[in-house]
């Protein structure tokens, strides 16, 4: 036998397991109705395979758990803070670090410091919490991602890239003094986990230097972005993930981080920067909203686990298996004829709900309905990333109608096996075969902020 295409496997083995409850279809039907057809309102114990998010639900390593025992729970000046701060500088280049309880804590502080009423913040596609903090601070978000990012079929290898012509147009329109910073995300979540290229980031750096505008990095999934640069961008094939991550960060001035994703911890985040004046302002505000500037809402043990998690997150073996599992699920779905966002992204598979449910108009929330139907089929929990997540325009009150109407199957890091992925793929396929049985939804309750988290729905009678 000639084995030319050898399999890979995860660079770890399982040391502890968490048993899962199996449910019947009738039980799941009752649970989703009780949850108002919103998967965020399901009880976790009623979920079999939880692909709601990759945030805070990864498995920590034995080294990270050992770090938890080394927590220095002092109110001020914890040893774990200094370890975390030094690790951020060593791996991510930023000189100053302010811990926060999670990513949105850092977004709040940054937005309050840098934004004035009437400003505009350009970014490579919105993220829900990031845009809301910009708006609450008085700014309007402006999307400057390349057009290809809004087309699920486009095979562009770097759909997270910024269109510099859109930035020029914004300057011509509102003036550079109204732009406090450009926000650039690595591996853009809402675009489908799509990377930005190093060349594009470098061009953006030059643009920011030329216009004297700060460049802020949403580095939540920076290591996954580095993997795509390593595998797709010329000149990076021989560089390590660690080197690429460092180079990405060093092209930017400051960063917000939700360490619950790439950095392999269950809670935590930070705001990091090179500018001492900005650091001073952040320290001033963190004590108001999060905690002292040497813990910012994190326990000492959590800062220790984060310091260790950062070092594990940039290992080539780790990231290859992490994105490899996403690719495995994506390829399997594609082979079954399921329409997904292309190319396959870093943290999730995004199902194209418009293509799967062509008879449900966008204002009957096809992605929300598909996500509820998926749960009922086999207990797989996913998340809507379409019109519900996009929310309403803060000035007109109208729903944003995004081109991408998606359901996200998000893979927690180091948690599920290939067999789980097979079950998920078969379930998606089964739901797609019976798509004409799925009804659209209408709001039963719509919260004011970040409505997707707590909204309730009712099926539209047919
Ligand atoms: N930025 C990005 C790109 C994110 O994906 C998230 C969170 C945040 C910022 C906010 O961080 O949750 O720690 O406050 N994304 C999660 C998700 C919630 O499921 O995509 P946080």
Q: How many strands, which pairing sense, and closed or not: the largest β-sheet? A: 5 strands, mixed
pLDDT < 50 stretches: none
**Helix content, binned percent:** 25-40%
Q: Shape from CA axes?
A: globular
Q: Looking across the biggest beta sheet, what order are the strands in? A: 2-8-7-6-5
Mean pLDDT: 97
Order of helices and strands: HEHHEHEHEHEHEHHEEHHHEHHEEHEHEE
Strand content: 5-15%
- CATH superfamily name of the largest domain? Type I PLP-dependent aspartate aminotransferase-like (Major domain)
SS class? alpha/beta
What binds here, in terms of ligands, is:
ligand F0G
The overall strand count is 14
CATH class of the largest domain: Alpha Beta
- Any idea what the CATH architecture of the largest domain is? 3-Layer(aba) Sandwich
Quote the CATH topology of the largest domain: Aspartate Aminotransferase, domain 2
The tally of structural domains comes to 2
Number of helices: 16
Radius of gyration: 22 Å
What is the CA-CA span between the terminal residues?
A: 56 Å
Question: Characteristics of this structure?
Answer:
5-stranded mixed sheet, 16 helices, 13% strand, binds ligand F0G, alpha/beta, Aspartate Aminotransferase, domain 1, 2 domains, single chain, Aspartate Aminotransferase, domain 2
């Amino acid at each position: 036998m000639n084995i030319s295409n050898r399999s890979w496997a995860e660079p770890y083995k399982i040391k502890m397991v968490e048993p899962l409850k199996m449910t019947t279809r009738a039980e799941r039907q009752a649970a989703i109705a009780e949850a108002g057809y919103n998967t965020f309102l399901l009880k976790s114990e009623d979920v079999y395979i939880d692909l709601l998010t990759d945030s805070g639900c990864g498995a920590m390593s034995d080294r990270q758990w050992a770090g938890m025992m080394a927590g220095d729970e002092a109110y001020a000046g914890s040893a774990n803070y200094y370890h975390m701060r030094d690790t951020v500088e060593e791996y991510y280049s930023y000189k100053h670090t302010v811990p926060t309880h999670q990513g949105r804590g850092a977004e709040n502080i940054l937005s309050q410091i840098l934004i004035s009423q009437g400003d505009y913040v350009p970014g490579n596609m919105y993220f829900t919490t990031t845009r809301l903090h910009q708006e609450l601070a008085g700014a309007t978000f402006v999307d400057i991602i390349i057009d290809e990012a809004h087309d699920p079929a486009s095979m562009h290898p770097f759909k997270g890239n910024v269109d510099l012509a859109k930035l020029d147009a914004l300057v011509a329109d509102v003036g550079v003094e109204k732009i406090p910073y450009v926000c650039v995300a690595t591996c853009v979540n809402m675009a489908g986990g799509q990377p930005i290229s190093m060349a594009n980031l470098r061009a953006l750096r030059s643009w920011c230097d030329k216009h004297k505008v700060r460049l802020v990095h949403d580095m939540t999934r920076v290591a996954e972005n580095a993997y795509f640069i390593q595998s797709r961008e010329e000149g990076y094939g021989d560089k390590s993930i660690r080197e690429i991550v460092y180079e990405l960060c060093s092209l930017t001035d400051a960063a917000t981080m939700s360490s619950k994703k790439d950095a392999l911890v269950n809670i935590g985040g930070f705001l990091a920067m090179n500018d001492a004046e900005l650091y001073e302002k952040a320290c001033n505000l963190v004590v108001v909203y999060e905690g002292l500037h040497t813990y910012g809402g994190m326990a000492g043990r959590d800062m220790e686990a984060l310091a260790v998690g950062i070092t594990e997150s940039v290992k080539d073996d780790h990231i290859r298996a992490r994105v490899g599992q996403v690719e495995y699920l994506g390829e399997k779905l594609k082979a079954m004829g399921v329409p997904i966002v292309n190319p396959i992204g870093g943290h999730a598979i995004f199902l194209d709900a418009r293509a799967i449910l062509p008879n449900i108009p966008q204002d009957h929330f096809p992605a929300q309905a598909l996500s509820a139907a998926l749960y009922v089929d086999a207990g797989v929990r996913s998340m809507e990333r379409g019109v519900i997540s996009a929310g309403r325009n803060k000035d007109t009150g109208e729903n944003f109608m995004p081109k991408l109407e998606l359901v996200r199957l998000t893979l927690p890091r180091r948690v599920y096996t290939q067999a789980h992925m097979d079950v998920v793929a078969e379930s998606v396929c089964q739901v797609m075969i019976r798509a004409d049985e799925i009804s659209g939804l209408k709001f039963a309750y719509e919260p004011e902020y970040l409505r997707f988290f707590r909204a309730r729905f009712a099926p539209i009678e047919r």
